[in-house]
Amino acid sequence: MNKVIAIANQKGGVGKTTTAVNLAASLAATKRKVLLIDLDPQGNASTAAGIKNKESFSLYHHYFEEKDINQCIYQSNDSYGVIPGGEELIALEVAIRNNNNQGCLSKSLQTLNGLFDYILIDTPPTLNQLTIEGLFCASGTLIPLQCEYYSLEGVTGLMHTIKTLSDKNMTSNRVIGIVRTMVDMRNNLAKEVSNELEKHFSTLIFNTLIPRNVKLAEAPSHGVSGIKYMPSSYGAKAYLALAGELIRRVESV
Ligand SMILES: Nc1ncnc2c1ncn2[C@@H]1O[C@H](COP(=O)(O)OP(=O)(O)O)[C@@H](O)[C@H]1O
Ligand SMILES: [Mg+2]
């Protein structure tokens, strides 16, 4: 089994990176072999995983300097592997576009076949070539969403892109599910939006709600997931529950 899951939403600050890092840690806690790929030039997932960007090889070095992809995998503080991201991915984005080399990441990942149970891909907050590369590789996409008035803007575009790619037989990627993040049920609007999402996306929405929890926001500065930083926190428990739900969803098919 080899599940490649892109975590995407063109909107910034919706909890993509937090979800990527904490899901990776939660899946690793179940003894599954996990690789997290940071496709964001901001490199937040790499920092949160405890990887010092300056010293490491990324997909830039794999692409431009022909480094073996295995040489770009680092060990996080949470027992999962990481291919770090950073500013140099901006040049990679341009090169893939200019050289018409779409799907190059997908080819590289084939050489890792069988080494990991799950490969999670954290994507940037735009639908650029890096995100498309992620969508190309993925067998499924997970969409983190904040329960706000404009939360669906952009998501329909993303879902349409995923559907178009698979209709054209370019990928087998499908939306695995929508995760509600940073939920604060004391907020009436959040409650309303959350209920609407349940109605409209009844089959896609995950039951697990990720609460707004300061431990999840503090953990990255210690280079660990919320799961390791404060296992008893509501945030950590929610991500462990989400991992359970994800496993049931993708491993039962
Ligand atoms: N459940 C949460 N509770 C509290 N803070 C959160 C939570 N999820 C994310 N954050 C914080 O919100 C900000 C944006 O989250 P992030 O995961 O980086 O979003 P994205 O990757 O979509 O831009 C970060 O500062 C992060 O620490
Ligand atoms: Mg991010």
The CATH architecture can be given as: 3-Layer(aba) Sandwich
Widest sheet, order of strands: 3-4-2-5-1-6-7-8
Total beta-strand segments: 8
Radius of gyration: 17 Å
Average residue pLDDT: 94
CATH topology: Rossmann fold
Number of helices: 11
Uncertain regions: pLDDT < 50 for 5+ in a row?
A: none
SSE succession: EHEHHEEHHEHEHEHEHHH
What is the CATH first-level class name? Alpha Beta
What fraction, in percent, of the residue positions are helical?
Answer: 40-55%
Can you give a write-up of this model?
With 253 residues, this protein is an alpha/beta fold. The chain has one domain (3-247): Rossmann fold, CATH 3.40.50. It contains eleven helices and eight strands. An eight-stranded mixed β-sheet has the order 3-4-2-5-1-6-7-8, with helices on both faces. A hairpin with a 5-residue loop joins strand 3 and strand 4. The radius of gyration is 17 Å and the shape is globular. The mean pLDDT is 94.
